[in-house]
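Quick illustration for those who missed Monday's session on complexes.
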Amino acid sequence: MPLTAAVREQAARLRAEIEGHDYLYYVLDQPSIPDSAYDALMRDLVGLEARYPELVTPDSPTQRVGGRPALQFLPVQHDTPMLSLDNAFEDAEVIAFDRRVRERLGVAGSIDYSAEPKLDGIAINLRYEDGRMVRAATRGDGSVGEDVTSNVRTIKTIPLRLRGDTPPSLMEVRGEIFMSRSGFEALNARARGAGDKTFVNPRNAAAGSLRQLDPKLTSTRPLEFFAYGLGEVRGISLPSGHTASLALLRSLGLRVNELCESVQGVDGCLGYFRRMAERRRSLPYDIDGVVYKVDDHRFQAMLGSVSRAPRWAIAHKFPAEEALTLVEGVEFQVGRTGAITPVARLKPVFVGGVTVSNATLHNFDELARKDVRPGDTVAVRRAGDVIPEIVAVVLDKRPEKSRAVHVPRQCPACGSDIIRADGEVVARCSGGLVCSAQRKQALRHFASRRAMNIDGLGEKLIDQLVDAGLVANAADLYRLQPDQVAALERMGEKSATKLVSAISGSRSTTLERFLFALGIPGVGEATASALAQHFQGIDPLLSATEESLQKIEDVGPAIAGAVHAFFAQPHNQEVIAEMRRLGICWPDQTERPKPANQPLAGKTLVVTGTLTGMTRDQAQERIREAGGRVASSVSASTSYLICGENPGSKVALAKGLGVPVLTEAEFLALVNDDKAGQNEI
Ligand code: JCF
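Prediction with JCF bound:
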């Protein structure tokens, strides 16, 4: 493709946009887009400039680290440039990085790397002369930063003097200043108490704290520091590699992250990445990826740097877990026990690997505390498999005429009063059985896979059945006729018949599934199973006293009370009797086989590729039946990877980590040991 005016225009637009974001982010500490969106813009520009090298100008954002010093702090020249890092977002990019490194060095075998968590903070250069800290400066654009010495002096984890009797005549220490999550929460709690502005995330809180003009203020902020490298050094001989440098830094009294590790080759790097991805949530601070560095200093020197980053290091980023989006509205959901939950409806946003369009606000107190309003721009976080939540409102972006959300006093579904018991955080609809929302939720739970497992009876259909007046409770489901269902909107005769037969098929179940399906508050699968084991039937349960319930292991007074209250309700007794009349049955508990032995107890398995003899769901069900745990990604703690046809990159990763890889047949042999055992009983 020739270099057209349109391409030039696109490059100019990207540059202007990136520069605008740089200013917001670096100078004002007020980012207006998530890092992932910024990274995407930068990548577009880098890609464009790679295709059309004649487009590159010396002042393009790709040619420097980004940002410029703010006016109020004095500029500091870095004689040894402070480098930034290139990013990798996929395994393939790390593999390509490792290949480039080995090709340039002419190394056939694997390279020793050091790996460390990548902190989400502010890069800093600490200059020690004859062991005393004389200056601290931010990275700025890499060659000129800002003098923040007085502020940095207030950070307790940074030594003002190096330990040891013979300090080097000059040593520049490089590292990251950051704030722990708990420090951030405490700071925001204080700010709220004082009616001050809160920070959106720990990174901005750290940046804002470091850039206070008054060091007294900075000293009240919970800032921390990890050292990760050296700048200019005089008066001692440099260690041979990065790991040795970190040891030297530690011996001089600097804080080095204890999660730094030496790893071998690209497999070692990717294994480390998986382990950190799993540990990420349990760390006390935010990390946005990991950093790999070629360990050997001679190799580093041979590889050198390009304009903004070393060729011997790369940052491997996690998928974004926080993003900004717009609140379209705040609604109030009614749960199956009547609990009212405020939920923010969001403009869909991609975060933590999924598209999020709702975020819970937990309860009325939380809604009031965060003061989320329609029209607000909010930071949304999705941590692992946890339900997405709103971290904070970006107050600067609040529209002028916004109003706080009005908390309802009546149930949005049935109009009954909402009641909040003294000392309770949860507000509940008092409508009970008259509340259609509670009924819908209860039915949804009743039909769900782990309860009665009624295929095809989902949320929408339940809403339709309840709204049409066909179903008020679970027993009504078993009276449905195909023609009634077929009359519903978007329902044909075929699908109606299918649904009715799925409902009918669910009649034959187990006592524990049935008990779980009833949706008694506090009774999950484990408690349902314990109740079934203990009482062996529904009739003894209906007449059980609270006292006798409490004798069961893991049943405390609260659950005993809830169970007793549930079965004491005449309405519940009626519905249960009705369901039994309509044919719901379970095998006599006394005839049940003993629990099968569990060959996969304590094991974690991952399934990849297409299986031939079963679906992936079925395989996972088999794993669970055999006592195993199913995980979605391979890590060092994976016990087995089950590999079907056309597997992806998981196999190479498993091999790299020494995780055994099983064929479908080997997997079946493993779980069928168990079946053989059962037949003997
Ligand atoms: O944790 C970090 N943000 C981090 C940034 C860690 C490192 O080891 C780095 C870095 C930026 C540049 N190393 C370099 C060379």
